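haha ok so turns out i had the wrong file open the whole time. this is the CORRECT one, sorry everyone. sequence first:
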Amino acid sequence: MKNMTAYSSSKPPVWFWVVAGIALLWNLFGLFNFYISTFDQVTILETLNQEQRELFEAMPIWATVAFGIATIGGVIATLGLFIRRKWAKQLFVISLIAMVVQFVNWLFIQKAPEVFPNSYTMPVAVVIVGVLLIFFCNKAIQKGWLR
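then structure:
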């Protein structure tokens, strides 16, 4: 009987699954953006003026790789939440680091704010969500929801 109590106390509440579901949608959106910006650039380039197009086309390969690591890592980390694994936290950390690398390039090296208005909005939102997902994993680990 004691083992059943220990097991049931580590069962995540419904809101855990809701947060995991929202995180999956968020990360799939990021993966879609990575796919479009890497493999279907025509769609994006058609919407840009010449100066924006030149900036977009000048993205260094290492920043594209960081974008891929951030988005693919985020999706896999979120799937780790669904199967309740602690390693999800490490993948979220790697994803966050890759996001920051990509955004440092975009905002400060390539100086996107000079060409794209409101360039800080999405990077700030993405980093905040990334940090919150790491805190979420910490709580889930402390509560025994991830093993």
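The first helix runs from residue 2 to 9.
again sry for the mixup
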